Amino acid sequence: QVQLVESGGGLVQAGGSLRLSCAASAIFFSRYAMGWYRQAPGSQRDLVATITSAGMTNYADSVKGRFTISRDNGKKMVHLQMNSLKPEDTAVYYCNARDEYNYQAVYWGQGTQVTVSS
Length: 118
Hints:
This protein is mainly beta. It has no helices and 11 strands.
């Protein structure tokens, strides 16, 4: 059974940093594109950053220059380094895995809360 388990969320002051991690199991990790999405209360779930199996990255405009996504295929993990955090970054952050050979195979983690105080 595929599992994505996020960690690293918490409460931080504006301007601070957090590093989110997502550990994957039961998937052929190296063929999956991985991503981070976030959802604030009353809002839809939005893309934050993605990284393909080849290491190509994509970021939402709102986080460019502040967030960095990376992956470790050997450990089946994906990370999101978040710097210069702003109150508007407050949301539940979800890890996402998408099979690049089967777009119907999409998996989500349970989410981790990030709260940025002003």
